[in-house]
Amino acid sequence: MQLDSGAVAEGRITRVTDFGAFIQFENGETGLVHISQIAHSFVRNIHDHVHEGDTIEVKVLGRDERGRLDLSIKELLEEPEEIPRPRAIGRQSPQFEAKLRSFMRDAKERGPGSIGATKKGSTGGKRKK
């Protein structure tokens, strides 16, 4: 079995991590499907898509500078008309928003460079000898 760029091959998932899935082929070679190459949509949890022990078909994207196989599952999937975007994060709590507004207002009143600045001529609490 020749695993050149563009080849489609079947392999078994030997390990699933937060960043991708490792695939082993019949010839003993192992490659990585990065989490970004799992699906066309945003993958929040890779375990929702692949499982250790599954046999899957992947496309060989190429090899990195160390000769490791870069693989893709999504290259074999039909691309949806519109790629779903990740759900927006909700607003912060009203208390947090009020504290942030208060902080920004106070910082603006103090003027630029006032945070952490010392008075001119100050030695920052150290005495000159």
Name some characteristics of this structure.
alpha+beta, OB fold (Dihydrolipoamide Acetyltransferase, E2P), 5-stranded mixed β-barrel, 129 residues, 1 helix
Give a description of the structure:
- With 129 residues, this protein is α+β, with helices and mostly antiparallel strands.
- It has a domain at 8-76: OB fold (Dihydrolipoamide Acetyltransferase, E2P).
- The chain is built from one helix and five strands.
- The protein has one helix at residues 94-110; strands at 8-17, 20-24, 30-34, 55-63, 69-72.
- Strands 1-2-3-5-4 form a five-stranded mixed barrel.
- It is elongated.
- The N and C termini lie far apart (78 Å).
- The relative contact order is 0.15.
- The mean pLDDT is 83.
Structural class assignment: alpha+beta
Annotated CATH architecture of the domain at 8-76: Beta Barrel
* Biggest sheet, spatial arrangement of strands: 1-2-3-5-4
In helices, the fraction of residues equals 10-25%
> Overall 3D geometry?
elongated
Outline the biggest β-sheet.
5 strands, mixed, barrel
What is the helix tally?
A: 1
Approximately what portion of the residues adopt beta-strand conformation?
25-35%
Quaternary form: single chain
How much is the radius of gyration in Å? 26 Å
Report the count of strand segments.
5
Describe this structure in a few short sentences.
The chain is α+β, with helices and mostly antiparallel strands and 129 residues long.
